[in-house]
Write a structure and sequence with these properties.
The structure is a single chain. A hairpin with a 2-residue loop joins β12 and β13. It is built from five helices and 14 strands. By secondary structure, it is mainly beta. The longest helix has 13 residues. The strands form two sheets. Strands 1-2-3-6-7-8-9-10-11-12-13-14 form a twelve-stranded antiparallel beta sheet. A two-stranded antiparallel ribbon has the order 4-5.
């Protein structure tokens, strides 16, 4: 029990994670590498009066690799225009959330991405190749430590296409304050499904609308994600769904209130097309800044109603409430 759990937790701590945005639930996130995008790549519609635009030296295609314990990806970033990225400058948190909405059309930025979820894959291998050790990781009936570290992901890998727009949150004259926001549509697909650390043959496709961004300054790093979408399954025993998800995370290098500073929250609700709740996920995390990185531990619950499967897969979940535990290092 301890050997498998230790390997999984060590893998989570050793790999650099997405800045507070591992995908905690079905679907992939092709917008995670915001900080790696060249400013001249793409643009949205013209910025509103009074907003500055960052000078560009022509549109360029860019390739990016990102490594994380729960999400690792390779992405090709393709500009659809030669215009510079609009700069919206200094904004409050609420204003940052809404900065992209007036620029939602036409889309001028394309990302093609392939991704894999390493920790869920390790859980799959642990159950398939070391069944005795996996079973020994159950600390009490229905509670398995390996599943606690790897649950909340429905696929081992995926490919995706993002089409949308981007704005710049950099502050003129300050190189220590930067960030970008994205808004657009994401189309994802794969051919496998994960259920209780078991691989299930299931060609699937997912479509979602997403508003995402991040901003870093000398005193704080803020990131957020709002999304709504649908997931269609080719396996008749896996029920298709619609979902909504919210994530907010902040790192306060100068400290602050214990309940608000250096914390994050993530919530997701999945419903069948008939309106029946399939499952909900709620995660709350606490961070400890370490210079340019932050150690974090997320604890939460997966509430499984048992309505996501039918036929041969319609087995009752081990527990209606599943503990989730995700140690991580955020950069």
């Amino acid at each position: 029990m301890r050997s498998v759990a230790a390997v999984l937790v060590a893998a989570a701590l050793a790999a650099p994670a997405r800045a507070a945005d591992e995908r905690p639930a079905p679907g992939i996130d092709p917008l995670a590498t915001a900080t790696t995008v060249d400013p001249s790549l793409a643009a949205t519609a013209l910025a509103p009066a009074g907003a500055e635009s960052e000078p560009g030296d022509g549109a360029r295609t860019s390739f990016s690799l990102e490594f994380g314990a729960y999400y690792t990806s390779a992405g090709l970033y393709v500009p659809l225009t030669r215009d510079p990225i609009p700069n919206v400058g200094e904004k409050t948190e609420l204003e940052l959330y809404w900065a992209l909405l007036p620029r939602s059309f036409p889309p001028r930025f394309l990302v093609v991405e392939a991704s894999v979820n390493p920790m869920p894959c390790l859980g799959l291998l642990a159950r398939a190749q070391a069944a005795e050790v996996y079973d020994a990781s159950a600390v009490y009936p229905g509670m398995n430590l390996v599943r606690a570290v790897t649950a909340g992901f429905e696929e081992p890998w995926a490919v995706s296409l993002f089409l949308g727009n981007v704005v710049d949150f950099d502050v003129a004259g300050r190189k220590d304050t930067e960030g970008k926001g994205y808004f657009g549509g994401v189309l994802s697909a794969g051919n496998w499904h994960l259920k209780d650390n078991v691989l299930v043959d299931d060609p699937w496709v997912e479509a979602e609308a997403k508003l995402k961004g991040d901003r870093r300054s000398p005193v704080k790093k803020l990131s957020w994600s709002f999304r709504v979408g649908t997931k269609l399954h080719g396996n008749p025993d896996v029920v298709s769904s619609v979902y909504v998800g919210i994530r907010r995370s902040r790192v306060d290098y100068a400290g602050g209130s214990f309940l608000v500073a250096n914390s994050g929250v993530e919530w997701r609700l999945d419903l069948g097309f008939d309106g029946a709740v399939q499952h909900q996920i709620l995660l709350v995390d606490k961070k400890w800044p370490l210079r340019s990185a932050a150690f974090s531990v997320a604890v939460g619950l997966l509430w499984d109603r048992g309505t996501q499967y039918r036929g041969a897969l319609a087995t009752p979940p081990p527990r209606a409430l599943q503990l989730l535990l995700r140690p991580n290092v955020e950069f």
